[in-house]
Amino acid sequence: MTKNISEKTLQDLEFSTVLQQISEFCISGLGKENVLEIKPISNKKKLFNELNLVNEYLSSFQSENRIPNHSFDDITESVKRLAIENSFIETQAFLKIATTSITVNELIKFFKKFKIQFPTFFELSQQIEFTTFVDDEIKKIIDISGEVKNNASPILKQIRKDINLVRGKIGASFTSALTKAITSGYLDDIKETVVDNQRVLAVTAMHRRKVAGSLLGASKSGNIVYIAPQATLSYSREYQNLIFEEKQEIVKILRILSEKIRPSVYLLKEYLTFLIHIDAIGAKAKYANEMNAILPKISMDKKVFFKNAYHPILWKKNKEQNLNTVSQTLELNEKQQIIVISGPNAGGKSITLKTIGLLQVMLQSGLLIPVDERSQTYIFDTILTDIGDNQSIENQLSTYSYRLKNMRYFLRKCNENTLFLIDEFGTGSDPELGGALAEIFLEEFYYKKAFGIITTHYSNLKVLANELENVTNANMQFDERSLEPLYRLFIGQAGSSFTFEVAQKNGIPFSLINKAKKRVETEKVRLDKTISKLQKERNRLQKNSDNLEKQKTKGQEHLDNLQAKEQRIQDKLAGFQDLYDNNQKMLSLGRRTNELLNKYFQTNNKKELNANFNKWVADEKVKHLKKSPTKPKTKAQKQKAKVVEKKMQEVIKKVEKEVLQKVVEVRKEKKIEAIKIAKEKSEYIFKLNDRVRIIDSNSVGTIDKIDKKSVTINYGIFTTKTSPEKIELVEKGKK
Predict the structure, then answer these.
(1) Which range of residues forms the domain containing residue 389?
(2) DSSP letters of 465-499?
(3) CATH no. for residue 700?
(4) Would you say 25 and 71 are in contact if contact means Cβ atoms under 8 Å apart?
(5) Is residue 266 domain-shared with residue 316, that is, in the same domain?
(6) Which residue, 220, 237, 407, 468, is the most exposed by fewest CB within 10 angstroms?
(7) Is residue 679 part of a domain?
(8) How far is CA 273 from the centre of its chain?
(9) Mind listing the pLDDT tens digit for each residue in 190-224?
(10) pLDDT average, residue stretch 567-594
(11) Residue 389 has pLDDT above 60, yes or no
């Protein structure tokens, strides 16, 4: 599979707008950059892997096992600097690296624990080495606040101990000098302040020579001078030296830590790549969740079936304005290879075309798409588009010249694994000449077995679509009364452009419209008028069908209720019948018993009573066995039952054999009859007014004209020519 989805195709379908919308769901700047650079994935294995990742992330929204937090800091520059020999990075950079390592390790553990729910994520995470070495080493040296720990080295521990001692001496000496100055009355009301991170005495200007120390400044008015007491100066110098030594030791420690972490630079890069990828996957899944998008079935058979498909950009825009978006259902397969959509301008032809193209490109870029879960599609090698007016001033190309160059590119790239989308096919030139050339292009795409959708106003393309076996006409539905588009696609019939009707609605005088009608070829107006009438009739029938469907649904519900009631009544009647039968049986038994007893009372003959009773019981037993035969229990009974079953099977096989022989004879007779009929058809000489149809076609027409090598068939609204070998007789013409 090669990369054959060009930048032009992505631009025509506004793919970058979708990426911009997805990038808003990213939690990092690097993730946003990654999403905005998404392109169609040429490798099928990689594509399926990416789609499964997004689908698994989406499924986690409805699961208790939500994917853990995977936010991260951009450590790119820190990792680059860390890779340089003898370099080191600051403590905060080390903390970000440690956090990144912890985040990745948590994700690896999570996906391992729930590998059944997230199999693709588990496989992805297993490619990353699980190790706590990086964060363990950093934690040994740096605490959570970003300070190097005292026990990072014995020297640092001693320096900080000395610093604390000197701080104590500075504090004691300053307190002593402060007390002395206060007692002598040399200080201002504020007593002390801080200058250059150093405590100083606030001495009144008149007493500045009486206080021993170093003058570090004065107030704006000059009434107060700031003096560091002489007693603290020697300790301050010692303190500054210790602070310098501390910084030097920290740098040394950070260099050693950097040396330890440096061999793991490759791993840190993998961590960053992994987290960026998951951020991008998460953004795709959040976007899919907002759009109610799914992963449709990807078929190995060449078929596209998008049910209730939405254009994602239009859907989002309409949602913001509280407008409804009409979904489209469309299918391409071997029997419906190309669809030619016609109808009025602003009726939704282009957006339907773009919807299919954009959804296909999205799916082949690893994104889920807003379609019904019963949808399915195929992965195409190439997706070609020609959408919009591509007039080029820089290249001095007219619209038509540009489109011809595009068609040349299409013809070169088009094959059986291509999906092509062409908007306003054939426009830009003389309608007759441009339409004829468009026919040739369409036939070329057809014979190359490419799948495609085109929109057009050209009648000859509508007729050609009706003639080619696997090309289907379609139209965007239009309300003929209000002349408003319904934005619903109807497959199976060409659409009228409603040119004059729309012109009338937009205020063009009726007299001018009539003049225009007279200037158009009569046949063209007739065809367009016929199509318009058919479309109106179909809209009326569609409304009637919808009403009938509603009535049918209501009727079915009523029927179901009646059937349920009837079933309950039948159940009750069956219960009453069983009760009645049991009662009758008991009455019959009672009468028979009564008869036997009365006879016994009259004759007083016990022997006769026993004989009659035993005979009656034997008769009842025979009746019972006929109704409920007992299953064979003993071995002899089972053997006897098997013999009977075997004889029955032999009889059945014998009957089957006789029936099969008769079937074979009947089939032979039918075959001979079929050959005879076929011979008669092949020898039949077609005549004028014969009703015929093209072989494998459903449409029936009448022969208008017969030439040496061709036959002209009239279908009512149009005529077509074909050879006599390609037609079959439906009904002989009446003389």
Answers:
(1) 298-520
(2) HHHSTTEEEEEEEEETTTTEEEEEEEETS-----H
(3) 2.30.30.30
(4) no
(5) no
(6) 220
(7) no
(8) 25
(9) 888 888 778 888 888 887 787 777 777 788 777 88
(10) 79
(11) no
